[in-house]
Amino acid sequence: MLSEHRDVVLAMESPLQMLRAVSEALLTCHVSSRSMRLQCILSLMNTMSDEDLTQALSVIYREVLICQKDANKKTRDGALEILKFFISRLRGEVILHALTTTLSTNPTGNPNSNATSVLKSSTVTALCLLLLHHRSNTMMLEAGVTLLPQVGELLIADCPHQTKAVLSYLRVFVSIQPVQTITNEELLPSVVAAFTQSLGTHKAKFSSRCRAIMRKLTHRIGEDTLRAVVPHSDQPLLDYVCKHARRAERRKDQQRRALLSSREERMLG
Predict the structure, then answer these.
(1) What SUPFAM superfamilies does this protein map onto (predicted)?
(2) Is 136 helix (H, G, I), strand (E, B) or coil?
(3) SS3 for 159-211, per residue?
(4) Residues in contact with 173: Cβ distance below 8 Å, sequence separation at least 6, in sequence order
(5) CA nearest 53: which of 89, 25, 22?
(6) Angstrom distance (rounded) from CA 41 to CA 39
(7) pLDDT tier, 250 (very low <50, low <70, confident <90, very high otherwise)
(8) Which of 50, 54, 70, 249 is the most buried (most CB within 10 A)?
(9) Prediction pTM value
(10) Per-residue pLDDT averaged across 111-129, rounded?
């Protein structure tokens, strides 16, 4: 109805007012209708100016963040589309302010409550999307460095949701930051410690994510620089990553030589 009779509906009430009405019951409605409400929200947002969209962000972003962790995949996908829409339309500073405010507040009063952990982990995931979108923006890269200690503190709660989100943030961080930033003598040890020594009981569960971060760091800053700050207990992981990297490089060299050889044979033949 909203798509077919858009002009009539919008003539009766502003998109922002309708969005407020839809978002108020977003978390309390039945799970089967939540994804459809998110689609309605996205449809309304498509008609808004940037000014109205900024107001819409303050109205619904918390609900959208929580929907990112919903058990229903359609709801999660709908929430993700709304976040991507905000990131693509609004200035990065506006969204960054909203997310950092959420990250530093405690909505339930209990830092270990499930609602708090879900909201904070979803906020970190949204920060990852934001930083990836603005990876060429110097101000956003600096904000990513500033937020690193605050994001790392979420590991203290020993919560799987938050641990997974923090590891995603670390992977994005080491992927987009300049090498000179990553190799800072104070920053690099804290990054390495976050995914090697601060995971507690969740280290085995997220071993593949830790391995991916180690692999990315090895690629970005080199084995020697990284080995100097990796704890002794995690040196075998670094050895494993480096061994596979060298094996992959040898395989690429063999493929390149085979390709050159076949080209020469075709030219001579």
Answers:
(1) ARM repeat
(2) coil
(3) CHHHHHHHHHHHHHHHHHCCHHHHCCCCHHHHHHHHHHCCCHHHCCCCHHHHH
(4) 131, 144, 148, 191
(5) 89
(6) 5
(7) confident
(8) 70
(9) 0.85
(10) 82
